[in-house]
Each structure stands twice: as structure tokens, then as C-alpha cells.
Amino acid sequence: MFIQTESTPNPATLKFLPGQAVLGAGTADFPSADGAEASPLARRLFDVTGVTGVFLGSEFVTVTKDEAADWDHVKPAVLGAIMEHFQSGDPVMAGEGGASGHAAFDGEDAEIVSQIKELLDTRVRPGVAQDGGDITFHGFDRGVVYLHMQGACAGCPSSTLTLKMGIENLLRHYIPEVSEVRPVAV
């Protein structure tokens, strides 16, 4: 098994491509070891000293390390953990997993929210996934769109610029009712 590694805009995060499907559909975000019981792969990665976050995409695994750890020490252990997992035959997710997506929204702004989600899915999320992360809709209130940043996007130094100059401008251009975009921590 050959696992490719790609850097991301976030220096604390690397993207690992195992050359096979990780999650069939959706994503799974584990910003800490606390919620990792849902994924045997994430649990294995959190056993690596220095790993502070795991994000699973359709064909990639994004791993975030703490500031004190050095990638020269963490990366070989992460590669080993990913390889061991896929060779073990264990599932990536225990039971029903993945499918992290947009928050449901009902109300008078449902048509606007539908347009926001469509733009996110077609114009934003594919590019963000290339960087090892995901951005999902969390809410809409009086012109303000609330988005949840995951994987490499969470804590990335350029995430504020991406939100304000990229996503906000895109949404405001196509949907006049949008006045601002803000990140939300879940």
C-alpha cells in the first residue's frame, strides 16, 4: 500500500491519500479523541503521540498535530497507523458513520438556504476538500450565514481570508439576501 501525503494551507495539518476509498460518502470530523469511538481508524490515529484532530473524507484522511510535535516524528507514525488500519480489515466507521453535512433548516428563508447550500456544494466544498477539509452550512439569520469549518480548515491561518474574501463574496454575489459569513465552532 502506497500512501501519498499532501501539505495543506494549515501547517499543523497534513492530508493523507491511501489510494482507496476512506468513506463512501460524506465526511467525519473528530476534532478531539473524545468522539473518536465512532471510528476505529480515528481511534488508531489518536493513539499516535501529537495527533490532536482527524478528519475523514471520501478518499483522504486529514490529520492535525499539536504545535509542540514535529511532522518529522508524527508523519511516519501516522502513515503506519493508516496502513495498519487498512490491512486489518477493520471498518473505517463503526456502524452508521460519516455523512456529516449541512444542518437542516426550516423556515421562511428555506429557499435562500437552499441556494446557499447549492453554492457551497458546487463551488466551495470541492476546492476545500482538495485542501483536506470541509465547510458545512450551520445556520442563516438576518442575512448572516454561519458555516462550520472542519479538517484542515479548522484553525487554518488563511481560513478567515477564505471565509471573508472567498465564500462571503461568492454568496453575496449570487444571493443578495446574504450580508455576511461567520464561522461557528460546533
TrEMBL record:
Lineage top rank: taxon: Bacteria
GO biological process terms held by the UniProt record: iron-sulfur cluster assembly
Entries under InterPro entries matching the protein: FSCA_dom_sf, Nfu/NifU_N, Nfu/NifU_N_sf, NFU1-like, NIF_FeS_clus_asmbl_NifU_C
Pfam families: Nfu_N, NifU
A GO MF term: iron ion binding
Residues of the Scaffold protein Nfu/NifU N-terminal domain: 3-89
Family (UniProt): Belongs to the NifU family.
UniProt-recorded name of the protein: Fe-S cluster biogenesis protein NfuA
Organism: Salipiger aestuarii
Upper taxonomic lineage: Bacteria, Pseudomonadati, Pseudomonadota, Alphaproteobacteria, Rhodobacterales
